[in-house]
Write a structure and sequence with these properties.
By secondary structure, this protein is of the alpha+beta class. It has two domains: 88 residues, Ubiquitin-like (UB roll) (Roll), CATH 3.10.20.740; 121 residues, Alpha-Beta Plaits, CATH 3.30.70.20. It contains five helices and nine strands; from the N terminus they run ββαβββααβαββαβ. The strands form three sheets. A five-stranded mixed sheet has the order 2-1-5-3-4, with helices on both faces. A hairpin with a 6-residue loop joins strand 3 and strand 4. The chain is globular and about 50 Å long. The protein starts with a strand and ends with a strand.
Length: 215
């Protein structure tokens, strides 16, 4: 596949044709906040709204995960408008997040922590209205525990489940604020991938999924 060169901030970088701008920047060690993108996704859900960048010639910032690279791109990843949008997206995520890092399996490797640090926002911003989902824990799955108030609804677990097993055993249910991950109410272990498949836990950027059988 041929490679394309283009400009990001004050650097010229190159990437294979067809790659997303986000993937290309990450490969070139240019950090753009992101939670819902994973390498290999052909259609990223663009749900976290964190990966905004400015493109010369475009009036509004765009999400880098949905933009394929082109040779005429001139990209800025660090403008005030970009940072404003990213901080707004992060605050929205934090408004529905139960921050309790000390008791969380993702502590110190959590991508939400990293994003907050990168954007200079504390995990418990002042004056932020907070909403919680019920129940706090979904333990209906034979092998997994899910904590909706830690989930950033990025969809990575669904994507990896489908690519590993040919179909996803996890889905999103409901809409808007009520959106939640569901196991289809399935408690029938016979039908499910073996308990030693931890792919969904491994790709979760936060601590929203745990194995019932230990690490
Ligand atoms: S998911 Fe991350 S930010 Fe949330 S409690 Fe766990 S470590 Fe803290
Ligand atoms: S459980 Fe984890 S991987 Fe799945 S949608 Fe929630 S945050 Fe994303
Ligand atoms: S990574 Fe682009 S919107 Fe989430």
């Amino acid at each position: 596949m041929s490679r394309i060169s283009f400009q990001v901030n004050d650097r010229k970088i190159s990437a294979p044709e067809g790659m997303s701008l986000l993937g290309a920047c990450l490969n070139a060690d240019i950090h753009i906040p992101h939670l819902c993108y994973m390498e290999g996704m052909t259609e990223p859900p663009a749900s976290c709204r964190l990966c905004f960048v400015e493109i010369e010639g475009r009036r509004e910032p765009v999400t880098a995960c949905t933009l394929p690279v082109r040779s005429d791109l001139k990209v800025r990843t660090d403008t005030p408008a970009v940072r404003r949008l990213q901080r707004t997206a992060l605050r929205l995520l934090l408004s529905v997040h139960h921050v309790d890092c000390k008791h969380c399996i993702a502590n110190y490797k959590c991508e939400l922590q990293r994003t907050a640090r990168f954007l200079g926002i504390g995990l418990k911003p002042k004056h932020l209205d907070h909403y919680s989902k019920e129940p706090e824990v979904d333990d209906t799955h034979p092998h997994l525990i899910h904590r909706p108030n830690r989930c950033v609804l990025c969809g990575r677990c669904i994507h990896i489940c489908e690519s590993r097993h040919g179909r996803a055993y996890i889905a999103m249910a409901r809409r808007g604020f009520d959106t939640v991950l569901t196991f289809y109410g399935s408690t029938d272990a016979i039908d499910l991938p073996a308990p030693d498949c931890t792919a969904c836990i491994d790709v979760c950027p936060v601590g929203a999924l745990e194995s019932k059988h230990g690490e």
